[in-house]
UniProtKB/TrEMBL annotation:
Key word Isomerase present: no
Domain SRP54-type proteins GTP-binding intervals: 269-282
Region feature Disordered, mapped onto this chain: 485-523
Protein's name in the database: Signal recognition particle protein
Amino acid sequence: MFEGLSDRLSGILSGLTRRGALTEADVTAALREVRRALLEADVALEVVRSFTDRVREKAVGAVVLKSVTPGQMVVKIVNDELIAMLGTEASVVDLNAPAPVAILMVGLQGSGKTTTTAKIARRLNQRDKRRVLLASLDTRRPAAMEQLAVLAKQVEVESLPIVAGQSAVQIAKRAMEAARLGGFDVVMLDTAGRTTVDEGLMAEAAEVKAATKPHEVLLVADALTGQDAVNTARAFDERLGVTGIVLTRMDGDSRGGAALSMRAVTGKPIKLVGVGEKVDALEEFHPQRVANRILGMGDIVSLVEKAAETIDHEQALRTAEKMRKGKFDLEDLSMQLAQMEKMGGIGGLMGMLPGMGQMKKQVEGANLDEKMFKRQRAIISSMTPGERKNPDLLKNSRKKRIAAGAGVKVEEINKLLKMHRTMADMMKSMSSGKRGGIGQALGNMFGLGGGMPGGMPQMPAGMPEPTPEQIAQIEKQFGGKLPPMPPGLGGPGGGKMPGLPGLGGPKGPGLPGLGGFPFGKKK
């Protein structure tokens, strides 16, 4: 959703970093463009003014203008202020209260409140191991209670039995009593919404809050509503005392203004974001990571966390070992394609790697169909085990049989085999210690012609190092110490940032879709 804003800000700031020295006029001109970019992204005017004033105050100081790398200092200042605007630290749903903990879900109709309630319940149940009871207090919208009951079954939590004729407050009291008697840890109360903020909506929500004394009051807001979401947040906060915000449709084409404005206007943290329709499409909101991605610095920590959730660790280690020996068959390719799909395809990976914006555009410009991966896996599934292990067996008669089985043309089988040969050659050369740019590899693999410019980019200036806590968390997820980052990913000589498994040495499963191959020299 931040793509437009990211492109604008990256362009403005890269112009500054190319300058040898900066004057106050340079900074003022750049901030004028930053102001325009933020306003076009639908950020609230008061937030834009405050942001640019703070950046100008720091950027025109002698420390910046006389710095060895003044442009990079300005990038760091903008990055720091973006983080401050979004909230310095990530905030999670607080369950630190006597059970049952009540969570009141509020928001306008159509913001995705009921679906988000189920998503949070699934997260609390599966990740935090809490027993959750869902209760719909929406007595007006047809089938609202039935919708929540169906969603509760999908996410494998319990819902309060429906009793016709009760008011919202009566249902809320019954839910709290049922939770106490049933030994539930959390009660999620899904309130009714309205198309606009009105007195009836606020009075009912305030009455429910007084009756249940919730530990959390989460406002669910649609990121696509732009500046109106800010007005909604302010109204709910003034009347109900919102403790956190959940933004939905963050995977849409909104310009990001709501996310940038709501935290600054209300002072309440954005705790979670919805990134899709599925019940597992819910992520924590990390201000530092979002700021990094807006400025084109990537999001390495989120990428590793996503990899940790989707990669079969043991299988990945076995595959990495095979690659180190120069072996890479079609079964391995199928596994790589499947894992790449889970992580959001090529575009999803490119968006999280630092400095890969240009490469992402080139991939998108090549009109690659993400469904291509499914077709290629179908082709591989139509082969015999022997054919998958030894692609050289695939002559014309076999190709025709496989094409008929997979419902594709023989030309597609030839493309798949060419892609496999490219990857196998790449694995073999890297297993012998030779290094090649990912840009060139991807370019060759997908027929983009001559690869992509620059190979694996240098880490952008101002990219903050991960904290020891983040490094410890990543190492815990992958079950061991991470190898050092190779040159070009953490600065000259490897830098301080830890290497991603498979991107920093011979150990580790590697990034799916990027080959899973080790970049370090063979030991």
